[in-house]
Write a structure and sequence with these properties.
156 residues; globular; 76% helix; mainly alpha; single chain
Length: 156
């Protein structure tokens, strides 16, 4: 079970990247979004939301167990939050290379900057839920920012 938790929590070991593990961990999120999650939400938004909620809850548990294994709060090797965050950042957006690149950049930006309430969640919530929720917040910001930028680009 320990090996499974480490594999999942580190985003198939991308969290071990010596440079920008969060960015490296977002790449499996892009791939999963493109191959699995976007087709799922195109088929049924309700089914996607149910699957996402189950995966999010399971990821909270995995992230919490990984913190215990690594003996460190929100260890940089834990990137399951980036994997699911990337999916949330792209939710219901067109899955084209331009959108994926913009969503990836904005998600990484908001995950790094941690605008309110992500900063508050990051500082005050502990355990796997805290690990996951600050990235979900960053993903929501990224998703909204992509929509606003695309809207503005169409009006220029």
């Amino acid at each position: 079970m320990r090996s499974f938790i480490i594999f999942v929590a580190t985003g198939a070991y991308t969290g071990y990247s010596p440079i920008a593990p969060g960015t490296a961990g977002s790449i499996p999120g892009l791939i999963l979004t493109w191959l699995i999650f976007a087709p799922l939400w195109q088929y049924s938004v309700i089914l996607f939301l149910i699957v996402f909620a189950i995966l999010f809850a399971a990821s909270c548990w995995v992230a919490g167990r990984a913190e215990e294994i690594f003996e460190r709060r929100d260890d940089s090797r834990i990137v399951i939050d980036e994997v699911l965050g990337m999916t949330a950042a792209m939710f219901l957006l067109p899955i084209t290379w331009r959108y994926l690149a913009l969503g990836f950049f904005l998600f990484r930006l908001f995950d790094t900057v941690k605008p309110f309430p992500a900063d508050l969640i990051d500082r005050r919530m502990h355990g796997g839920t805290g690990v996951m929720l600050d990235d979900l917040t960053a993903a929501i910001y990224a998703n909204l920012a992509v929509r606003v930028l695309v809207l503005l680009a169409h009006h220029i």
